[in-house]
Amino acid sequence: MDVLSRAAAGERLSASEILELYQLPLPEVAAVAHELRLRRSNPQVVTYLIDRNINYTNICNVACNFCAFYRTKRQGDAYVLSFEEIGHKIEELMQIGGRRILMQGGVNPDLPFEWYLELLRYLKKHYPEVRIDAFSPEEILGLEKITGRDCHELLVALKEAGLDGLPGAGGEILVDEVRAKAAPARIKSNDWFRILDTAQRLGLYTIATMVIGFGETYEQRVAHLLQIREQQDKALRTYGQGFAAFAMWTLQTEHTRLKGKAPGATAHEYLQQLAIARIALDNIPNLQASWPSMGFKVAQAALYYGANDFGSTMLEENVVSAAGGHNRTHATVRQIVRHIADAGFIPAERDPYYNIKQYPDVQAILNEKPPVALPLA
């Protein structure tokens, strides 16, 4: 039985078999990935989430070569948002029906741990119905260094203060050789998994991520996927929950120090890698399409290459767009619903755990006049 037949039969592929997929015609790989997607999630439905990204500070001492968002504290446009400013952004989200924020920032050594606890308490007091997924593994590692406390102790305190989940940002390619070339001070692979494993043990929400285009080899991409799959096996077996989803996008280098030094990745490579991820990650049912990095049309195509989710409205995306994404910092519900429906699927609003909240009235949404864009706070 050849590798695609084994994959289509639902068998788990080895590293060498996954590597073989890169040499096969993409339409054949995509067909198997799409078939698996139809089996592992509702075949008629594509989900989306109404949420908002909030970057509470852009001050960071990690200084990744592929980041155009970070600032040193001495730069004129460096900032730390006040609790009230963050609250105002949440109120804007609530006005359009959103009840979840993804809050991340740089590794800011001038913010004490108590600041994070006070922020969470403030948000939970004033917006108790809003879910807070915040602080990437890189930020938790930074807090370990600042406080001298381990991630378990830190995450317990953050959870008690109101933290609901930990984003999987900072994954990129989880091979330290690749990471050292792109960002020498970046969190190492073992620390990334150690912190997310602790979050999963504590019952915090997590997702797995991947960014391609650093010049990594196919073997290194496969190594990344297999580590994600192994962690998911462990988490499901030991904690009863693991990564809620897998999200991947392409490296954006236009405004970064990696411009001209890293190849990035084409739409073809993105769709190929997404299809292979669907096949390899047999224990993660939900895969997101990435409209911020690829644009809406490629994101629509991704729904036939293994993705069953169109991502979220975001309302305000600063990190990918700063590096030179598709110049999109947010999407309206109308845009997302239209692109899902035009691709031939039923749009469904979900929560972060991929439970369906409601099926919107597609025709009513498509027939209404687009809302006047409001300035973001």
From TrEMBL:
This is Cyclic dehypoxanthine futalosine synthase. Gene3D superfamilies: Aldolase class I. NCBIfam families: CofH family radical SAM protein, menaquin_MqnC. One of its GO terms (molecular function) is iron ion binding. Its cofactor is [4Fe-4S] cluster. It is an enzyme of class 1 (oxidoreductase). Residues 46-297 form the Radical SAM core domain. It comes from the Bacteria. [4Fe-4S] cluster binds at C60, C64, C67. InterPro entries: Aldolase_TIM (IPR013785), CofH/MnqC-like_C (IPR045567), Cyclic_DHFL_synthase_mqnC (IPR022431), F420 (IPR034405), FO_synthase_su2 (IPR020050), rSAM (IPR007197), rSAM_sf (IPR058240). Coiled coil: none annotated. Belongs to the radical SAM superfamily. MqnC family.
